[in-house]
Design brief:
- Chain B: This is ABC-type glycerol-3-phosphate transport system substrate-binding protein.
- Chain B: It comes from Catenuloplanes atrovinosus.
- The complex is a heterodimer of chains A (about 300) and B (about 425).
- By secondary structure, chain A is mostly helical.
- Helices cover about 65% and strands about 0% of the residues of chain A.
- Chain A is built from 13 helices and no strands.
- In chain A, about 35% of the residues are buried.
- In chain B, strands 1, 2, 3, 4, 5, 6, 7, 8 and 9 form a nine-stranded mixed sheet that branches.
- The longest helix of chain B is centred in the first third of the chain and has 22 residues.
- Chain B is of the alpha/beta class and about 425 residues long.
- Classes of the chains: A mainly alpha (about 300), B alpha/beta (about 425).
- At the A-B interface, helix 5, helix 11 and helix 12 of A face helix 1, helix 2, strand 2, helix 3 and helix 11 of B.
């Protein structure tokens, strides 16, 4: 009885959760709709005749005009080796590289700020936190000019290096690292371990929940990053998924039949982040809760 | 996306300004590099348009084996930001196409070559003067020549008009608003919609021209937006939303016409390509006409794209030659065919006499031909690119906040004056 009452009390939350899923469902169902069904009015909520045409349309011929046919997602970007998968690969590589490297750098910084007798560490920490108040758009121009002068436009290092210093991650990890007893670090020092060894062998294993929580934040942000890639990428082969989606959207402005292709691309784009979140959501919530308590 | 694009464009504009301060003024194009030229062409628009342009570029290579051109699509939403940053970094494409006003904006910042050096007399003679003046800087420079045109078209459902007791499409403002009332009475929920710059300055500009107004004096020395004609135009434009139920949000014109929710639409010529393919049930049920006239007669905005060469290209001569070749009969024919075949879109060449060969119905061709005689392009005056959005806000205040049209236009005029420098 008590359980039933609890479920009933949670019902509004379930309904609210359902509303969050509706756009995702709409995207997924539209990706499998045949072209004529896409523009049906009123729209169908379940594909009447599911098809993979949005991914690959066997009847499409670029030299023949056909009202109901558009190139499937994997038939586009023929001048890019790998086509859309190349964009996904770029996004995956860049997001993974930035996540791993920025977390390592931030964890090193957090260790120095919490476990080492660093002169002026309070001031350094205040400066790091203060930098979070500067909108990232403000740094866009100087970053761009630096990258240009380094001749890193249209390169992976141009994508990755400017994104490695993340003040919020440092702040978050500092809060978490303060909860790790200093005695552990002192004991390791007494045993003769160097600072780097202590950081890697003693502190980092205890940081897993916080690192996982931050990894989700960073991966999502970098996977969805649009503006920076837009301005530094000059060749299609270096584009990431959001930039590619933006181009697909341009095609849709002229022909609504491209909507299924956009939905197919959006579906493929969102799946990795959804899977990543589902796999690490326990760490995510725990990390948030812990940082909230310790903050 | 729209907000993102605005941020991107603003950042890019700052970048170009910053880039110019760090690199000094743009250098003049170097001499043509010897040997084969490999050119990268950023074509603003859809993937299908880029693919069509690639066919033209491949044909050009057959005629000029030393010149290879790779065409890459960039989206309208963020194309300006990309081109601005390319100009800043002095690396990127050799040729770009983009909005009609991009050429002057980029060129004045040192990002594009003045094509006058490469003799574009033939192109100028083949282009409508109203369009050519839009892409010519106040100083006479031509940083990009027109590549295609987008015109405003009045779309309508003859059957719905007939059912409402209307003999044909409205030809004047008075007839337009009467038609709205009668269609509403006959059961059409939203008789009139607007597309292409919905609820922004673009469709208002049509009213402005039809009322006999202008944004600037012809020599760009004065701002003329706060005139009596502009007040008349603004009042009529605002009445669409305030009294006649025109939606302020962007709508799907094809879907609305197909369902009978809309009976009339003022929209871009590119919409025509998607009606039959996107909404087969609409086939044969829609027609077009020129825009209704105002107190001063007919008038319509012409948009489209320019194409030009970047100032840092190693191959200015080769780039300029290709840009000029796009005006030839052969190039236009390829683009008309390929743009239609690949995307179902209508390609309107800046050469009016070639309109007859476009893939469009006779009715649409007649409409476009009639409209061509009444067009005005975007102003070529300094600061318009940044003033446009502010002007839109002042116009929207007339509808949203009940602001007095003259006061709103006076405010807009001040902003335009400040940006004019």
């Amino acid at each position: 009885m008590t359980r039933l009452r609890g479920e009933l009390l949670r019902l509004p939350l379930y309904l609210a959760g359902l509303t969050m899923l509706v756009p995702f469902y709409w995207m997924a169902s539209a990706a499998f709709k045949p072209v004529p069904e896409l523009t049906r009015n009123p729209p169908s909520f379940v594909p009447g005749d599911p098809t993979l045409d949005a991914f690959y349309e066997p009847a499409w011929d670029p030299g023949v005009r056909a009202d109901q046919l558009v190139a499937g997602l994997f038939q586009r970007y023929q001048d890019v080796p790998g086509g859309f998968l190349r964009f996904m690969g770029n996004s995956l590589f860049v997001a993974a590289a930035i996540t791993v490297l920025s977390l390592l750098i931030a964890a090193l910084a957090a260790y120095a700020l919490t476990k080492m007798d660093l002169p002026g560490r309070r001031v350094i920490f205040v400066v790091v936190v203060a930098s979070m108040m500067i909108p990232w758009q403000v740094t866009l121009v100087p970053n761009y000019l630096i990258v240009r002068n380094l001749e890193w436009l249209n390169t992976y290092q141009g994508y990755i290096v400017p994104a490695l210093a993340k003040a919020f991650v440092v702040f978050f990890l500092v809060q978490y690292m303060r909860s790790i007893p200093d005695d552990l670090v002192h004991a390791a020092r007494v045993d003769g371990a160097g600072e780097f060894r202590i950081w890697w062998r003693v502190v980092m294993p205890l940081m897993r929940p916080a690192l996982a929580a931050m990894a989700i934040f960073v991966v999502l942000a970098e996977w969805n990053n649009f503006l920076w890639p837009l301005i530094i990428v000059q060749d299609d082969t270096m584009a990431n998924v959001p930039v590619a989606l933006s181009r697909l959207n341009a095609s849709n402005a002229f022909n609504p039949h491209n909507m299924a292709v956009i939905m197919a691309a959006s579906l493929l784009t969102s799946l990795p982040t959804v899977i990543f979140f589902l796999a690490f959501q326990k760490h995510f919530t725990r990390g948030i809760a812990l940082s909230g308590i310790k903050g | 996306m729209h907000r993102r694009s605005l941020v991107a464009a603003a950042a890019a504009a700052m970048l170009l300004a910053a880039g110019c301060t760090t690199t000094g003024t743009a250098t003049t194009p170097q001499q043509d590099a010897a040997g084969p030229a490999e050119l990268l062409f950023w074509n603003t628009g859809s993937d299908e348009q880029a693919a069509a342009m690639q066919v033209a570029a491949d044909r050009y290579k057959e005629l000029h084996p030393d010149v290879t051109i790779k065409v890459q699509a960039i989206a309208w939403d963020d194309g300006r930001a990309k081109v601005l940053t390319a100009a800043t970094s002095r690396s990127g494409p050799d040729i770009v196409s983009g909005g009609l006003s991009w050429g002057i904006e980029l060129g004045e910042l040192g990002g594009m070559i003045d094509l006058n050096r490469y003799d574009v007399t033939a192109a100028r003679q083949q282009t409508r003067p109203e369009l050519w003046s839009s892409i010519t800087s106040p100083g006479g420079a031509v940083y990009g020549i027109p590549m295609d045109m987008t015109l405003y078209v009045f779309y309508y459902r003859p059957d719905l008009l007939q059912r409402a007791g209307l003999g044909g499409p409205p030809t004047t403002w008075a007839e337009l608003f009467t038609a709205v009332d009668r269609l509403k009475a006959s059961g059409v929920p939203t008789p009139l919609v607007e597309e292409w710059g919905t609820f922004e300055w673009l469709p208002w500009f049509n009213y402005l021209k039809q009322a006999g107004g202008s944004l600037y004096s012809p020599d760009c020395t004065e701002v003329t937006i706060a005139s009596d004609a502009a007040v008349t135009a603004t009042t009529a434009w605002a009445d669409q939303y305030r009294r006649y139920g025109v939606p302020k949000a962007t709508v799907d014109v094809g879907a609305g016409l197909a369902k009978g929710e809309y009976a009339m639409a003022i929209g871009a010529s590119y919409l025509a390509g998607g009606f039959d393919s996107g909404h087969p049930e609409l086939k044969g049920k829609w027609q077009t006409a020129p825009l209704p006239t105002g107190p001063a007669g007919a008038g319509s905005f012409v948009g489209g794209k320019i194409v030009g060469a970047m100032s840092y290209t190693k191959y200015p001569q080769a780039a300029a030659d290709f840009v000029k070749w796009l005006y030839t009969d052969e190039a236009v024919e390829i683009l008309q065919r390929e743009v239609f075949t690949r995307g179902g879109e209508l390609y309107i060449s800046p050469r009016p006499e070639l309109l007859a060969k476009a893939n469009a119905s006779d009715n649409l061709k007649q409409t476009l031909q009639a409209t061509l005689g009444t067009v005005t392009g975007p102003p070529n005056c300094k600061g318009w690119e940044t003033s446009g959005a502010e002007v839109s806000k002042r116009l929207q205040a007339v509808v949203n906040d009940g602001a007095d049209p003259r006061a709103a236009l006076t405010e807009a005029a001040q902003i335009m004056r400040d940006n004019l420098g």
